[in-house]
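Hi L., both proteins are below.
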Amino acid sequence: MTDGAHPAAPRRPPLSLPARLSLLAWDTARPPHGGVLPRLVRAGALAELAQRGLLVDDHGIATPADLDSSTGDPVLDGLLELVRESGPRPWRAWVGAWAGYTFTAVRDQLTAGGWLRAGPRRALGFLPPARYTPARAGVPAALRERARRLLDGTRPAATADARDALVVVLAVAVGLLPAPPGADRAARERRADELAGRAAAADPALGRVLDELRAALSATVPAAAPARG
């Protein structure tokens, strides 16, 4: 360049739905491998494949639309191939079946993309597995706040971005967006239902898939799930 200007930094590709959910839920204060995070990430991958029309609902069974299509995203394509090679399973079963593989693939993808940073910890002379932390510490909280604004705001659900709506609906299902003191919980549940409807507006079949994914995630949440900031 002749004008002395520095070249613009390359833009990162948009995050997939499972990657966004993984970052939103990431909390360095508690091990991210435990609890419901792998299932949440898996549900996000299933929802994105359904949204793209690559997985379709066949009487409650997650079914590949064909044998050849792909997304170009190795995480999503890996799950799609797993579904193709496995016997028929309901959506709810796929939320938990080998969910750790999808979670690990998303974690590695986020690390390669500069969203997470791996740093080994040494304890008593042993080297345990790497501990992953956000490359930018405020990103998980910012994503949660963005989701909260959509959940608790007054903007009509019908005008929300469909992918933002999906993030909120799945995050709510595992208690990642706890109600503030004095909040109308019934109103929040209605709002989550409205956002699910927005996410599925272009495809009623996606609404049925979301119902299954939300039910599967809700069933994994402890009765007194700890709130996250």
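That was the first. Here is the second:
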Amino acid sequence: MANFLVTPLTVSKMLPTDYVGFTFFVGCMAMMAASAFFFLSLNQFDKKWRTSVLVSGLITFIAAVHYYYMRDYWSAFQESPTFFRYVDWILTVPLMCVEFYLILKVAGAKQSLLWKMILYSVIMLVTGYFGEAVDPSNAWIWGLVSGIAYFGIVYEIWLGEASKLAAAAGGNVLAAHKILCWFVLVGWAIYPLGYMLGTDGWYTSLLGKGNVDVAYNIADAINKIGFGLVIYSLAVKSQKD
């Protein structure tokens, strides 16, 4: 017990030029702050929107915990924490797809849409992980499957069932849906680009290779916190209607 009490807290030194470590730290703090904001705001909403805001808080909280570990992993090994990052994504990305279903329930969205979106996201992430960590010699094949699943999500929200439900709902729901669609189309585009920069394939001669952790970290914070703020704004506006 005495040894436990006197054990010093070890803190790794971060160099001023360690932009990867810096973005891991800032990302962790930003998403923890966003989680507190979403959780503490729950009581101001009725049951219709409380679940959506709760899911937004869960997304950023899960990410904050993983960023805490990814920061330490980077500090110890100076390697991209691929395993932790994919564990984070396999939990948070399906939850981001759930957000589409939750806001479209007012227009009659069925659970089939929910499971379709979750299935696309899981295929996208599992095949991406296999390409990066399990079978990198066939990274381009795994990346192709992952990309097809990603575009399946894009099609569903821009042109498919989700798009039609949003149009039927109209008003604030349609406006929020469109913003979330842009997050997926533009904000999520950094991930397949990062995949190609971090693996070998026919694309390597065109793009080269490089560490994209800084871009991943910034994209994660913008996409996850941004998603939540769109949902929060929708809930606030709907309370006033």
